[in-house]
Sequence to fold (703 residues):
Amino acid sequence: MLLLKLSAQDLLALHRRRHMVSHLAARWRYFRGSDASVTERSAWAESLISLANDLVAADRGNVEMVVECAATLDESDRPNPRLVDVVLVGRHPHEDRPSVQLVELKRWSTVTRIERATAELVHVPGMGDKKHPALQLREYYEAFTSSRGPFENSAFECGGFAYLHNATDDSVRPLIGVDAPTGAYARVYTADRRAQFLDDLRESFAAVGGASEAETMLRTMGLRNTPLLDAMNWSRGDDTVFTLRGRQKVVADQILDAASKVLPGPEQPALVPDERRVIFLVTGGAGTGKSAIGLQIKAKLEAQGRTVKYASGSRAFNAAIQEHVGYGDREFKETFAYFSNFVDTPVPPLDVLICDEAHRLRDRSTNRFWTPEEREKWGKGPQVDELLDASRLTVFFLDEGQSVRPKEVGTVQLIKDAAERHGADLLEYRLREQFRCGGSGSYIRWVRAVLGVTDDVPELWRPDGLMHVEVADTPEELERIIRTEAEAGASARMVAGYCWPWTDPVGEEKRLEADVRIGEWHRPWNAKSESFCADGVPPSDIWSVHANGLGQIGCVYTAQGLEWDWCGVIMGEDMVRRGDEWVFRRGKERKEGPDSDIKRVDLPGSFDPKVSASSVDDDDFARLVRQAYHVLLTRASRATVLYSTDEETRAYLKGLAGQVEIHGLRPTRWNLPKEARPPHLPRANGRRSRKRRKSSGPDLRLF
Fold:
């Protein structure tokens, strides 16, 4: 947990725009479940700004300020986490290592001695008896410097101090007396000591700042996620990559424990000898770690010799893992399947079937690639029953808010009803914390409010140093930004609402038609093909990870379940803003000419054949379009660039996104420290052997 991470000079820039306190208050309300007190808000508005000004005055404006930060990975899971007011992070000026100072902000102007107590307890007029701030800092210091702290076992300089900018030495004499607590964390600075304070800041931090060190801290604390495919690629699928925490670890441990009880081992029978099935139902929004849990337990169960398959309703998700991670490893590829692969029950049944994106379950199994003669392959009953029959233990990961097609029937109630039919034991878990979008919960809430997914009133976006959002004026500008970041080494893609016809590849060379047409700007959709097309355009199922996929536009079906550093999102005319509400529209197409098979837009709106069909009523149509854009707007881990083809909608979005010209807040690839620029790992020239090894690359965290 943290409320804000910015350099001192960027924090002051945010404050000048009058967004800082309101942003901190909104983040506080989300994490703590209550409004920040007047005292807390005043400390942010006064002490925090005074501290930032002193850093700038000391020529240390590049030092990172991490505000209201939990000291360890597990601290934020406590009912009342202990939060450091500010963590200053930078580089030591004389030694080649990180430097950290923990800060308690105190607006106390007067402190008196309590005769009946020791120097560890003082009286603050109007506030009562208080502990010496060094006692609070001692707890943080011990947590920060422990083996579980934000820098783990690396060498770093750590200290702490209480900052009382509106007090004098005489007014708070009990805090600085000879009998006051001592230690690296026990310094006290008042207005009388400002000159000494500025000197000490220069002795604690180099002028170069601490962006790299702060990034390292965020990664170790699990607040920066590693893109799923990159994380798996580093590990080659081995169990060396995922660090689960909190509720995620609880869920994984429970599943593994259940497997050890109900599944027989090679040398011992099952602890629970009957044949009852066990079902785990894990729900949570985008980025809450469902896939991380699933892939982790898959690796662990396989290491135990269990027969395990990982199923999904998403071709893009499965193919991206198979091709990006498992190229050349047939055995690895075959452990991934689709929901429709279980019409025939495996013999013998699997030990465990992991069903990711279970909101994409269908009423029965079909396949658009099966010919009419192959219809006997179609499922005869509910698809969920086929999945339950396939294994003894079934795990469903589900987010009802990501259902984007009418025939996607996966719901909590569907799983519950199926469990009852099968006489299975059902265990439910709910994941809440999300780690996508740079760990920015405020961005997720902003997107949901803007799209009307929730009843919250949309507010001006307040930059938090974790996620960036901006609205482009033209599609050319959006593409320029995305291409610039991709060429600098970031992962990046352009996606759009399904608001244009979608032409199949043309001719023997399989040339793509530029269907997405906005003024003079024309680009093709990703290829409707299972093989490469003209100019090396990749097939649809690996469009998201192939280097040649940048020139095409993806949609929700090729983006769902995946993420990139930067994502350019084009909103079409299927969802436009009119006054104070969203209006949803179905589109119509026309032939380009009497002898042409190419189609163009006749009436702007949705061209998704499944969603805009007349059989879908208006309420469901609006829900599915809204949820599709929610998926698209949560694919980025660093920055989202928005563009709407509708002028009124674009103006509305620009008003909510605000200005972008704040120093340091636009996370271009070149502005990021090297620790925030891990290499992405596409297969070189479309080929890469996949050798198993115990460790590969850095210790990555994925949530």
About this structure: Residues 344 and 418 are 18 Å apart (CA to CA). Confidence is low (pLDDT under 50) at residues 225-241, 681-703.
